[in-house]
Amino acid sequence: MAESASQQVVEPVRRVSIGTPAFPPRARDGWLFVVGLLIFWFLFNGPPAGEIGGFDLRFGLEGPASGNPWKWAGALLVVALVIWGERRGLTSLLITKPTGKDIEWAFYVFGGVMAWSWIASLIAPQEDNDGVGTISSMSVAGVVLLIITAAITEEVLYRGYLQERLGSLMRSRWIGAAVSLAMFIAPHVVFFGPSWLFHQLVGSLALVAFTLIRRNLVATMLLHLLINAPILIPTVLAKL
Asked: Domain count of the chain?
């Protein structure tokens, strides 16, 4: 006899801890992850040479802007790998519609990061470096496109893909977060110099923590965009 409504037991929703992977690993995830790493290394990071056989691999672009097409291509290929290779959906990359709270907290965290940037600038003003100088020499439109590209594609690769896949394979999102953070920091330090760590490491940690807690990559993209937006200031000032 079917149970009456009063006799049915409704199980409580199980809370998943921050460090728990969003999905269990499968047998083929290991070699698929290697493919993802190859895409990251050889495509997302840009071509190793400026041209091959007379074909301009930078598409006539110069400086950081020359990497934009490759970042988009790498991110799209990784998404394709997830959908058709792993047979998982966009939710496995944490790409879902953000809630109002996700957006709200993105702005709260941004405020905290900006507060630290202000304090850091008082303690030790960031020195001029080739990285900032290179970006300042770009057009305002070029920097805006650079900011948007970084916010979307870097989050797909570093947080949505590397962090979540490593977390699943290692059965700990903490490990995935730590490794992907190190991989995220390295090229930024190379480009902006060691002083970047003191001023911007807090922002990088905020992106990782926000993703671990909120589990929404779209909101993290917004936070990333907001954190990067102040780079427009020296660019605009250089044009005055």
From this structure: 1
